Structure formats: C-alpha cells, structure tokens
C-alpha cells in the first residue's frame, strides 16, 4: 500500500543519511527487514559488544600460557607465573569466535551475494575464522600443550577488519610500498657495497693486536652486514669505529661517508618519498570518503522524492520539507549538525527542496566542530563589574604565568642548594613555606577567575580545568602535610610518618607545580600551534595506532614462538667467556648490559621490548649472543621489525604530522583567533579545502548501479 511504501522510503532515507554521516557504503539490502537488521547491527550497543569482544580476544595473550601475571620479567628474580588450566581461555576464545561468526554472517547477508564476492575483507574474515577454529580444535586435542598457535597471530585481523579508517590507511600504506621499496633497495645496495669495502679494508693482519676491528665487527659477511646495519641506526656509534680509529684516524673517512650517505641522504630521502606518496594516497582515500557521503545524501533525496506526497515536476524532482523533518527526527547524528539543519530549514521557509538545496543542507556535516564558551555572568553592582573586568582581563592570566615562573625558579634554587645534602641534613622550612605561599596564590587565582567568568565559562576552557585540578590536588597535599607534620618552621625535619615522608609529599607537590607551568602554552602562539597539532594527531590517530597495535601484536606472538625460554637465569656463559664469581663480564654482552628483563618469555615483555627503536639491533645482537642460537637467520626477525616500525612507521607518522602542521599553519593566516570559539577537526576535514566535489552525473551513475535499489528515474 501507499502507506507501507512511504514508510519504506522514509526508513531507506534514514539509513542512507546515517551511512553518509559515517562514510559507509550504501551497497546493501534495502528491504524493511534488512534495514531494521542494518540499523541494529550499527547501533551503539551492538558495536560496543563487538569492540568488547575484539578487546577481550586480544587481551587473552596476557593470561594465556606463557602468562604475563608476574611482578617482574627479569629471569633472575621472576617467580613461576600462574597459567590458566586448559579450557579456560579456550572457552572465552570460543565465545569470541561465535560473536565473530555472527558478525560475518550479518555482514555477508546485508551486502548480498553479489557484493560478497567483491569484498575481499569479508572473504579474508571467513578464512581467518576457519583457520582459527581449526587451530582451536587442534589445541584442545593436544590438551593445550602445543607451543605453536597460529590463531594467536591471526587475532589482530579482527581489530583491523572492524575499522574502515584502518582499512583505508592500510590501503594507502600498501599503495606507498612500491615507492618505499625503491629507496629500501637503494639502502640495501648502500649496505652491501660498504660491507664489501669494510671486509676489504679491515682484513686480518699478522699483528693480532691490530685486529680488534676485524675480530669484533667485520669477521665475516653476516657480522659485517649487521655491524653496518646497526651503525645505520646509530646504536653502535662510535663503538664500531673506535678500534680502527685508534689505529689510524684516516679510517674515519669510511665511517663518515657511510653515515652521511645512509643517514643524511637515503633515510631523509625515504622520509620525503613516504610523505609525498602517502599524502597523495591518503588524499585519494579521503576523496573516496567524500564521494560516499555525497552519494548517501543524494540517495536519501532520491528515495524521498519517490514519496506519494512529493511534488511532481517533469523537469526536476523535489522533496517535501515535512518528509525531511520526519527523517531527521529518527536519524542518529550529532545534535549540533541536526540543530544547524533545522535552523537552515526555518530560515529557508520553503515547502520543497531541490537536489542542490537538499545537498547544501547536509554540508553542515563537513564543517568544523565549533564549541562556543558560555557567557560571563552579568553583575549589577558597579564594584563587581570592576572586579570582573580586572580578574577576567588577560593581564591577570599573564600575572599568574609570572608567579608560576617564580615558583619554578624558587624550586630550582632549593633543589640546587640541597642536591648534595642527606635527607637528615635538609631544612625543609624554606621549601615548605614557599610552597604554602604559592598554593594559596593559585587557590585565590582560581576563585577570582570563577568570580569573573562564572563556573560554567571557567570550566569550558581546558587550560582552566587543568589549572583547577592541579590547584585542588596541591591544596589537598598541603592540608595533608600540615595535618601530619604541622606548619613549617625553622629546622622543620620531621621523621618518616604514615605512607609518605614529608620530603616525598613536598617533592610530589613540586612535580605538580612544575607540570602546572604548562599553562603558559596557550599564551605563546607558536607553541600553542605545535601543541594543538599534537593534540589533534592524538585525537585522529586511532587508525594509525590500531595498525601499530596489529604489528606489535603479531611480532610479539611470533617472538614468543621463536625465542621463549631462550635465556636462563644465569645466561649461557660459555658464549661470552665470562665468570660470575668475581663479577667480571665482557662489555656489550647481554649479561653485562643487564638486559635480563628484555626477553620473549611472555606477551607483556615481548610486546614492548622490540619498541626500543635506536638500540634494537644492538640489544638483540647481545640477546642472540647470550642464547648462542645456531641459526643466524633469527636476526631477520629483528631487522624486519626495525624496517616496519622504525623506518616505515615512524616516517608515516612524520608524514601525517607534517600535513597536519602545514594545514594549521596555512589556516592560521586566514582565521582570526577568537577567545569564545574552539575548532575541532578530523582527518577528513584536514583535506577538505583540496577535495573535489563529485558531479551530478557521477552520483546518478553510481546510484543506478546499486544492486538493491530501484530508482524511479
């Protein structure tokens, strides 16, 4: 009937607009039941359950055998870890798999059979589940005693496939790899050539005393290649060149040429190529997101124009404002955008909207999120107005910055004076007195600002919330200090009492005061620009952080499989020819460097140990020496991690950092800073000024290709 058709069109428009808001594809089933299932699947509750399931299955690695539930990872002091009984973590894993099976089933049904075969992510999702379930069955058949569990390496895929932005970022990285590979190949040629030069230059001589460079660093091809690769990271600089340099200073020319060509030219060239290529591919990805948004809005217009009450026109189609209002009431969208669209409809004061007008209404989704601060209170008293003007003036904030600087200087003076004194010799009267004075000033400043600005306006500024929180904490610490030790007086050196000594409490208060000095950042334009750029990156780096978690997780699990238990409590002393009785240890070995906590005996330490980018190869060269691994190919694991994390990933981060900073620097010239307005941007909005709008023909052509939507025209 007509009423049922109208309800279907309304529901279709609602889903299309929600797809546009979230940059989702509109190629899914459009019947009533499928639309209900689609909205249920993308509801907050369902997505929260899915996110919780992904977090849970990833977190299982911390309690699975080998468990990370120990206080320390140092093999010398680590007690036996608690390992869960067989079947406990496997039961949790099975529940997670069932949720994932339901997830992929719903997704596959909603996109339809035709779209399913085009979607490589869905097919990979199903394949991952099949392999994981098969490995789970094998694990139970061996009573959880097997060491290799393939499904653990596959777990990060569940995180990856659940984020559209992570997929786009990964696609951009994948498209950038050919250009990166050319520079990496050039780096390999650079390493190979200099390795051959080194082996020819530092050959074995008759005088054994002069062969230190050959013995330690260039004895054979693998050792030579490793030494120069570590030098490329600067982790063994200048150790690698000292034996040769002590023999003849002319040898330094070799190492200078290697470092200049490798670090200054090739590594920076890699950064430039990654920035240029990745920016282009990320821009294409964001352009695709814009097309999806415009397509979703246009699809909503087309289905609303099919309503029976829509005005008929042979030349152009229209949508009634009443139908749009019905849709807006049910759409899940940001209240700011919804209110802005409602205001635009009232200002328009028209009954029907054309396609261009309809599209223009939803351009509100592309605008910066604007936060306006509440107004200051209006006082009737002339005296209160003067106080409000005085304490609400920027100069009052500058005075607070000067006082904070004076506080920092006074703390520095006291620290310098007491640096060499024993705790029993310190007179804490001066430090306690100045802390008391400054904390009272901070409290007074906070109260006066609240008086001038009002509580709501005061709390609307992040800098004020930061100041206020630290002031309250400092006040509580001061009150606790006075309650336990009394007021400061000459010779104030009370003994240890309670949980913290006086010096510990004063030191904690001083650290907070130093931290509070960061309040000056908003008053320095350039520094503020840098900090806001970093904060925006933190807000918009979820996709990058997610892929980094995927890489960390996969390498950590692989490291456990390869190197678990390789280091014993006393190490393999035969590999380094050392004795522990008199404490003599060979310099640079795993034992001498006391790298005992860095191992692959459980997931927690494996997950962060390889993140020591600069000293990574040096650390694990010592590690391999300690465990005396026969297979030298194990170094490939650490080199691969260095290439992915330190070379590729860090450069990708630099690329996004540069793009964000350049964008903010350019916009600074076109926007006057307003004290009552804050702008918040996303990655999509970062490129908004350079994106191209899709044409009418492109949108309609794409809509006519929709597998589940039949348009009237």
UniProtKB/TrEMBL annotation:
Catalysed reactions, as listed in the record: Na(+)(in) = Na(+)(out); Ca(2+)(in) = Ca(2+)(out)
Annotated keywords: Calcium, Calcium channel, Calcium transport, Endosome, Glycoprotein, Ion channel, Ion transport, Lysosome, Membrane, Repeat, Transmembrane, Transmembrane helix, Transport, Voltage-gated channel
Signal peptide start and end residues: none
Ion transport domain boundaries: 68-278, 398-661
Principal subcellular localisation of the protein: membrane
An example Gene Ontology biological process: endocytosis involved in viral entry into host cell
Membrane topology: Multi-pass membrane protein
Pfam families xref list: Ion_trans
Location within or outside the cell: Late endosome membrane; Lysosome membrane
Membrane-crossing segments per the record: 41-63, 122-143, 180-202, 253-275, 395-417, 429-448, 469-488, 500-521, 541-563, 612-631, 638-658
GO cellular component terms attached to this protein's record: late endosome membrane; lysosomal membrane; monoatomic ion channel complex
InterPro entries (UniProt xref): Ion_trans_dom (IPR005821), TPC2 (IPR028798), Volt_channel_dom_sf (IPR027359)
GO molecular-function term, one example from the UniProt record: voltage-gated channel activity
Family statement: Belongs to the calcium channel alpha-1 subunit (TC 1.A.1.11) family. Two pore calcium channel subfamily.
Record's protein name: Two pore channel protein 2
Organism: Caloenas nicobarica
